[in-house]
Amino acid sequence: MNDPLAGTEPAPAEPAPEVPGPVGTRPEPVLPAAEGPPATTLPAEAPPAEGPACLRVALSERPERVLVEIDGVLDYETEGRLRGALDGVAAKPGRRFVLDLSRVGFLDSGGIGALLAIRRGVLSRGGELAVTEVSPMVARLLRMTGLDEVLLPGTGC
Least enclosed by CB within 10 Å: which of 25, 34, 40, 81? Predict the structure, then answer.
């Protein structure tokens, strides 16, 4: 047979250096570095910042009640901040607490546990706890867990 390419050979490429690997594996070639500044790989969506900085607790004390406005993420990482903010005022007997959860964007079991512990502490000192405002996400979660009857009695959120 007459093969027109039979006598021509491509120019030999430089072999890439090999990096030793574990026994029984095929070595991976090391590719030459590209020129220019190193590339930065960013995730498609940066995760939201988490931690105590994502929770704001504002207290407004009046003789008849304490308004507690909670803003941000109420979860297992931030619930200690809520408890800490209420420690001093919740220790006084007979206090009425009004919780505003309308700006809570996320609530998990740690946050629910904190709300229930605060309620239990306030009630044990002869006080009252009422949740007056809730965000749609919190309302849905309280309905799903049945806690709307405990924290929001008579509201039918």
Answer: 40
DSSP helix/strand/coil, 11: coil
Q: In angstroms, how far is CA 63 from the centroid of its own chain?
A: 35
Strands 55-61 and 66-74 come out as: antiparallel
Q: Is 18 helix (H, G, I), strand (E, B) or coil?
A: strand
Rounded distance, CA 101 to CA 31, Å?
55
Q: What is the pLDDT of residues 4-43, one digit of tens each?
A: 555 555 555 555 555 454 444 444 444 444 454 443 333 3
Dihedral pair phi/psi, residue 27, rounded to 5°: -65, 140
Sequence-distant contacts of 21-26: CB under 8 A, at least 24 apart: none
* Dihedral pair phi/psi, residue 120, rounded to 5°: -60, -45
- Which SS3 state, helix, strand or coil, does residue 37 take? coil
To which residue do tokens 């960013």 refer?
42
